[in-house]
Specification:
By secondary structure, the chain is mostly helical. It has 2 domains: 1-110, RNA polymerase sigma factor, region 2, helix turn helix motif (Rna Polymerase Sigma Factor, Chain: A, Orthogonal Bundle); 121-197, Arc Repressor Mutant, subunit A (Orthogonal Bundle), CATH 1.10.10. Helices cover 71% and strands 0% of the residues. It is built from 9 helices and no strands. The chain has helices at residues 3-18, 21-29, 33-52, 58-74, 85-105, 124-140, 145-156, 161-168, 172-191. α2 (21-29) crosses α3 (33-52), α4 (58-74) crosses α5 and α5 packs across α8.
Length: 197
């Protein structure tokens, strides 16, 4: 590659880093497959964190992230110009998670899988983090799903309440009430001794 070709490639990479998620989505809709790769690199880790906090194991969360991007691909032409991508994508992910839970309710309950995080050879700090993660997942699964969603999006992901409201399809005041009630429920669950299921 010539020096001039290398500088063009670097400029293209720099442009991708500075393009907004909405610009990348518009580019993808227009046929730029690299734009989808960039969107996946940026947003898949965020979606994975959100979903992993609400699902019993990371494998299920990974599957839902993949399904979310597959749905993004299928619905790419439905994305409105001028709309914000992140709330649209989170809405897809949350709807897929709800559908996943509905399917699970029809099947017998499976034991919680911590995905190898409770390895007996790990150091004490790893055990404590795994225990805390287990306790948090346990508690989030025992409060109403709409409250767990709001808490996960707002507290853990730092998404502002107005954007959370847009993602979950509720009013701002309803989202704040869900958060308040969810925090109260979590506090009550975490203040009492946890029974081993």
């Amino acid at each position: 590659m010539t020096e001039r070709g290398a500088s063009r490639a670097s400029l293209a990479e720099l442009t991708d880093c500075t393009r907004s998620e909405e610009q990348l989505m518009a580019a993808y809709v227009a046929g730029d497959r690299a734009a989808l790769d960039e969107l996946f690199q940026r947003l898949a880790p965020v979606l994975l964190r959100v979903l992993a906090r609400q699902l019993p194991n990371r494998e299920e969360a990974n599957d839902l992230v993949q399904q979310t991007f597959l749905q993004l691909h299928r619905s790419r032409n439905d994305f409105r110009e001028g709309a914000r991508l992140r709330p649209w994508l989170f809405t897809i992910a949350i709807n897929l998670k709800r559908e996943h839970f509905r399917r699970l309710k029809r099947r017998p309950e499976a034991p919680l899988d911590l995905d190898g995080r409770s390895d007996p050879t790990s150091v004490q700090g790893d055990h404590q983090r795994a225990d805390a993660q287990h306790t948090l997942v346990w508690a989030l699964q025992r409060i109403p799903a709409d409250q767990a969603e709001v808490i996960t999006l707002h507290w853990f992901e730092g998404i502002p309440f107005p954007e959370v409201a847009e993602v979950v399809g509720a009013s701002l005041s309803a989202v704040k009430v869900r958060a308040h009630r969810g925090y109260q429920a979590l506090r009550a669950l975490l203040d009492e001794p946890i029974a081993q299921d």
